[in-house]
Design brief:
The complex is a heterodimer of chains A (456) and B (246). Chain A is an alpha/beta fold and 456 residues long. Chain A is 52% helix and 10% strand. Chain A has 22 helices and ten strands. Chain B contains 14 helices and ten strands. In chain B, the strands form three sheets. In chain B, strands 2-1-3-4 form a four-stranded parallel beta sheet, with helices on both faces. A four-stranded parallel beta sheet of chain B has the order 8-6-9-10. A two-stranded parallel sheet of chain B has the order 5-7. In chain B, strand 9, helix 13 (213-225) and strand 10 (231-234) form a beta-alpha-beta unit. The chains are: A alpha/beta (456), B alpha/beta (246).
Chain lengths: 456, 246
């Protein structure tokens, strides 16, 4: 069994909890459906977003340079990082030069991808994630299990226990309002003490050199408004050409992510605040590899709304941690193999190819087709398990010869009829662990057809 | 109208009654059914596992066997989608020659024959919308998109007397079959199927119908193991039985 399947099996063992997780995430999908139905031009918006992203990706270097020129003109510093290591070194360098030992961060999946937190902590910097969900998983020393709702795998009772331990809330407290208040008080002190704030970037605008950070908690705004130093980290794919393109993406993002008409805070940054410094770190980290491959290029259009996770029947029933990567779910299973195909070769198979992800995607990424394309790519690279490779060869040989197919069919049906149950149902039969095999008919359709038409 | 019948391999071997019901339906609606006997499998099991080189000869074979027919009809949305949407990476532009000529059964009855099915089937039935039929052939509008609501399968069933179609709370969630997914990820696959069954049970249906025997085989396997009373019936069988009892 591959790693994802193993993790999923463990996740499902607690039947009540896994059913709760499925329903909690499905509830967000339903909220998204309702929000979508308030926008008559929804499908046109999706197409528009798709085309803007396709256009941008077709001229990505030009737009990135345009963004850099304008950001510099706004007074920001711009850094380029080829990969996660370079990104971490750059961020640490900026902090060191400013003598920063206390950093507050708003949510950034990119820095998760680059494993920035442990890198900085090892170098003596206190890093505090200020998004509530992120702070919760940080306390637990867990990675986020969802890209928009990092602690969706935890129940309010779990949080109560954690906060009792970490923040001294009364034992057994599970009221979300009171728990959130405790977190606010705790984070307020961290905000006030911070010497620098780090944010992600949702959209970077080429023509203005500005960028937008979306949060529901206002934690990005507070985190960069108090200390004089703001570091913003973005993947190269975050660019949109014009400020007016934001009108398309901001409408799609919050509705797709949580079913809200708009995120509570959409903060626009154009240069440092008076007396402060703004550093923008632009990171590749495997993205240009995807850009170079036409069949996977569209995955770079992703705006990280998480809708494909919420709709995915596999994600909902296996949890984000089962994927073993920063970005789980359908989009994560498309992105991960480009970074390390061997390590993540099972992820494109963690899907029934039901296609719900492709239909829910606000930028129309053909996610389930990309998962299929990865399967083909991994097979061509010889990275799939031996039994699959052999099985496919046998299948090809048998199914290429009609007589052999008929013979194999007859033998198979005969075996199903006569073999004793323990020979059919055992550890080797993954199907039979929970399911009966079909009842084999005496004659195939083609035999019945011949009889019907008077042939022998 | 001459119609070439494409019978998916597992239907040929394990569910011949589904193919026979398809023949009866097509004949009753004025078609002359031809069954090209050299057919085997569309190649989807290999293609969906990533083995394009092993799927290619089967795509070639499909073209050899069915290439000369104007209307190829099959009681499987998934296999039809394989031919229509996934042959191009295997055989390039030649995939286009087949694309417009291969039809899923309900799609063919609804769009090409514009058939009105009349008959009786006085039962409460749960409709399972198989993913490839729904999202790759667009047999229905689907719950994800904001497009005018339509459903070709439901439209065909609408003329049947006594039939009560019950919608599941999640009207088009995957049953978890997914080909080799059913064994690669057996735990999730099974849970997905059990969740579907639970929703149909709440509606107190006597059977579950759908366009794809593969999904129904998976659900049936779970139902029989758990000794539940609900049966599965392919929509071709349901339509044929309804017409026969008219």
């Amino acid at each position: 069994m591959n790693e994802h399947a193993q993790n999923a099996t463990v996740f499902l063992r607690d039947e009540a909890r896994s059913a709760w997780h499925d329903q909690a995430v499905w509830w967000v999908r339903q909220k998204r459906d309702r929000a979508q139905h308030a926008i008559p031009e929804w499908e046109e918006l999706r197409s528009l977003a798709q085309h803007i992203k396709a256009h941008t990706l077709s001229r990505l270097p030009d737009y990135l340079e345009e963004f850099e020129r304008n950001a510099l003109a706004n007074g920001a510093h711009v850094h380029w990082a080829r990969n996660g290591d370079e990104h971490n070194r750059i961020v640490h360098g900026i902090l060191r030069r400013h003598g920063v030992t206390r950093l507050v961060k708003s949510k950034s999946m990119l820095t998760e991808e680059c494993h920035l937190n442990p890198y900085l902590v090892e170098r003596g910097i206190e890093v505090v994630d200020t998004d509530l969900g992120e702070r919760i998983v940080q306390f637990l020393e867990q990675p986020p299990s969802h890209i928009v709702m990092p602690a969706i795998h935890l129940k309010k009772e779990d949080i109560g226990e954690l906060f009792h331990d970490k923040l001294g809330t009364p034992k057994g407290l599970s009221d979300p309002k009171q728990l959130t208040e405790a977190a606010r008080q705790h984070l307020r002190a961290k905000f006030l003490a911070a010497q620098a704030g780090l944010t992600g970037v949702n959209f970077a605008i080429a023509e203005t050199g500005g960028f937008v950070v979306c949060t529901n908690e206002g934690n990005a705004d507070l985190g960069v408004s108090l200390p004089p130093l703001h570091i913003a980290c973005m993947g190269v794919e975050k660019i949109v050409p014009r400020a007016k393109d934001l009108g398309v993406f901001l409408r799609l993002l919050a509705r797709s992510a949580t079913g809200q008409p708009i995120t509570t805070y959409s903060a626009h940054f154009h240069g440092p605040r008076p007396g402060g410094e703004l550093h923008i770190v632009i990171v590749d980290h495997g993205r240009s590899k995807l850009l170079a491959r036409p069949e996977f290029r569209r995955s770079l259009s992703c705006i990280r709304c998480g809708a494909c996770l919420n709709t995915c029947p596999v994600y909902r029933r296996s949890g984000g941690h089962s994927y073993g990567v920063t970005v789980p779910g359908p989009i994560g299973s498309v992105l991960a193999p480009s970074v390390d195909p061997e390590k993540h070769s099972a992820l494109p198979f963690a899907s029934s190819l039901c296609g719900s992800c492709s239909d829910v995607c606000p930028v129309r990424i053909d996610l389930h087709h990309q998962l299929l394309a990865w399967r083909g790519d991994l097979a061509a690279q010889g990275l799939l398990p031996q039994e699959k490779t052999v099985g496919a060869k046998i299948g090809r040989i048998v199914l290429s010869h009609t007589w052999l197919y008929r013979l194999a069919g007859s033998l198979g049906r005969f075996a199903l009829r006569v073999l004793p149950r323990p020979l059919l149902y055992n550890r080797l039969n993954a199907w039979g662990q929970t399911r009966e095999l079909p009842v084999p008919p005496a004659r195939s359709f083609r035999a019945q057809w011949r009889a019907r038409n008077g042939k022998s | 109208m001459d119609v070439a019948l494409f019978v998916p391999c597992y239907i040929d071997q394990f569910y011949p009654q589904v193919a026979m019901a398809t023949v009866e339906l097509l004949e009753r609606h004025g078609c002359r059914v031809i069954f090209p006997e050299d057919q085997t499998c569309c190649g989807q099991p290999m293609s969906n596992s990533g083995f394009r080189d092993d799927a290619r000869p089967l795509a070639e074979k499909f073209l050899r066997v069915f290439g000369k027919y104007d209307h190829v009809v099959s009681p499987s949305g998934s296999c039809v989608s394989m031919v229509r949407n996934h042959y191009e990476p295997l055989i390039g532009e030649r995939a286009n020659t087949m694309r417009g000529r291969v039809f899923e059964l309900c799609e063919f009855l609804h769009d090409v024959l514009k058939a009105k099915v009349k008959g009786r089937f006085p039962q409460k039935v749960g409709l399972h919308r198989s993913c490839h039929g729904l999202r790759e052939l667009r047999l229905g509008s689907g719950s994800e998109r904001f497009v005018p609501s339509h459903d070709k399968v439901k439209a065909l069933l609408a003329g049947i007397e006594g039939l009560e179609i019950c919608e599941a709370t999640r009207p088009d969630e995957c049953c978890g079959f997914g080909g080799t997914f059913a064994v690669d990820e057996a735990a999730i696959s099974s849970r997905m199927g059990q969740d579907r069954i639970r929703e149909h049970e709440k509606n107190e249906v006597s059977l579950i119908t759908g366009t794809d025997t593969s999904c129904l085989m998976h659900l049936e396997g779970l139902l029989r193991r758990e000794k539940k009373a609900i049966r599965v019936l392919h929509v071709a069988e349901l339509l044929a039985q309804a017409e026969a009892s008219a």
